[in-house]
Write a structure and sequence with these properties.
Layout lengths: L1 H50 L21 E2 L2 E6 L5 E2 L19 E18 L5 E17 L5 E8 L18 E5 L5 H12 E2 L1
Parallel strand pairs: 2-4, 5-7
Antiparallel strand pairs: 1-8, 2-3, 4-5, 5-6
């Protein structure tokens, strides 16, 4: 009986130790996540926000930025995504870490990116009640203008096309009172954006 009691105490102690360790790991992960979010917010405030005017209008110069040289190596670039209203912000998917400037004086290039929806085809349908409906096939297109941060001068621009949306079928289902249905293709990924930028960012 005495031995059994001793074993139970040891097992319980082990369980408590595991719980403490697990809880500690959870707290550590939360703290790390909060630190990452804070670092991102600081970067956006100190690096991204000051260069956003480069994407506006004809491109405003940022005197504090670095000159874009033709020397061999990596030339730090900031990627900004703009809305139809002209508001610019950081994209959901960042560029390669080795391309990302950590301070404003390191920024040489600003890639201004805007995503548009282009109507590829409108397919007409006649509903059972005789009303006319349609399916709109939409393709995402990403417009990129690469500018020098210090001068606002355009280095290059392009339009990257996303995948085509699915073809219209001979029959399709419309919800009640729905007369227009939209079908989208896959948007341009950050990999495509990076591939286009690479010759300007990484000079041989």
């Amino acid at each position: 009986m005495e031995n059994k009691r001793t074993r139970w105490i040891l097992i319980t102690g082990s369980i408590l130790l595991i719980v403490v360790i697990a809880t500690g790991c959870g707290s550590s992960e939360k703290a790390q996540r909060e630190a990452t979010q804070q670092a991102q917010a600081t970067w956006e405030e100190q690096v991204l926000k000051p260069v956003l005017p480069v994407c506006s209008g004809d491109g405003q110069a940022v005197a504090e930025a670095a000159a874009y040289s033709q020397m061999s190596g990596v030339h730090p670039v900031v990627l900004a995504r703009g809305s139809v209203e002209g508001n610019w912000r950081a994209p959901r998917d960042p560029l390669r870490p080795e391309w990302t400037p950590q301070t404003l004086p390191e920024v040489e290039l600003v890639a201004c990116m805007q995503v548009a929806e282009v109507l590829v085809e409108s397919c007409p349908y006649t509903l059972e009640n005789g009303r006319q409906a349609s399916v709109e096939r939409l393709q995402y297109q990403t417009n990129i203008t690469l500018r020098e941060a210090k001068t606002g001068v355009v280095v290059a621009d392009t339009v990257l096309a996303g995948a085509m949306p699915a073809e219209c079928s001979s029959e399709t289902r419309f919800e009640r009172d729905e007369l227009t249905k939209k079908v989208y293709g896959v948007a341009v990924g950050i990999g495509q954006v990076s591939a286009w930028l690479q010759p300007y960012v990484e000079l041989p």
